[in-house]
Design a protein that fits this description.
The protein is of the alpha+beta class. The chain has 2 domains: 18-109, Winged helix-like DNA-binding domain superfamily/Winged helix DNA-binding domain (Arc Repressor Mutant, subunit A); 115-171, Dna Ligase, domain 1 (2-Layer Sandwich), CATH 3.30.1490.190. The protein contains 6 helices and 5 strands. It has a 3-stranded mixed β-sheet, with no helix packed on it. It is globular and about 50 Å long. The structure holds zinc ion (3 copies). One zinc ion binds next to loops. One zinc ion (ZN) binds at residues 97, 108, 110, 115, 117, 130, 132.
Length: 171
């Protein structure tokens, strides 16, 4: 795993291959979250961990209500506020991103780096890949700055077709 402090184009190969070992993605995400929490003195409580695991169930974003339903299926139904608080914590820690256009959540593959993300969203399978391209961030800041505008944050969500779905369409 590359651990760059600056976001760069290394994160370009962003879409996971279909049929990859996704258990590995989940295990990596959970162990990375545990390590970062220990380092930061934050507490990865049981519900936070459960919510993170559910967000990582796939590379497609998941809504808070779906998370609640899945937790209910697995036994006890938590109060919605508990799920929202867990998501807030996970976002604060950078473990999870929120996709504004879907009002849904996605696990971040490099929570150890400080970055602003842009998202490629596949219309066919729902998979999302994350870019953290500093050139995009810089370009936005530059153009906004020329308008006398101070950027506090941005949402860049791009719709299209992922490599696997494109291949399937041509097969
Ligand atoms: Zn995966
Ligand atoms: Zn990220
Ligand atoms: Zn796709």
């Amino acid at each position: 795993m590359t651990k760059s402090t600056r976001s760069d184009t290394k994160s370009d190969a962003a879409f996971p291959r279909r049929g990859h070992d996704h258990h590995r993605c989940v295990a990596d995400a959970l162990s990375q979250a545990e390590a970062l929490c220990a380092q930061r003195g934050a507490r990865l409580t049981e519900i936070r961990k459960q919510v993170l695991a559910l967000v990582w169930e796939s590379h497609a974003p998941i809504g808070a209500y779906q998370i609640l339903e899945k937790l209910a299926e697995s036994g006890k139904r938590p109060a919605p506020i508990a799920v929202y608080r867990a998501l807030d914590f996970l976002m604060e820690q950078g473990f999870v991103h929120r996709l504004a256009s879907r009002n849904a959540f996605l696990g971040c593959g490099h929570p150890d780096t400080n970055h602003q993300a842009q998202f490629l969203i596949c219309d066919s399978c729902g998979s999302v890949a994350e870019l953290a391209d500093s050139r995009i961030v810089d370009a936005i800041a530059d153009r906004a700055g020329r308008s006398g505008f101070a950027v506090a944050g941005h949402v860049v969500e791009i719709q299209g077709t992922c490599p696997d779905c494109r291949k399937a369409a041509h097969a």
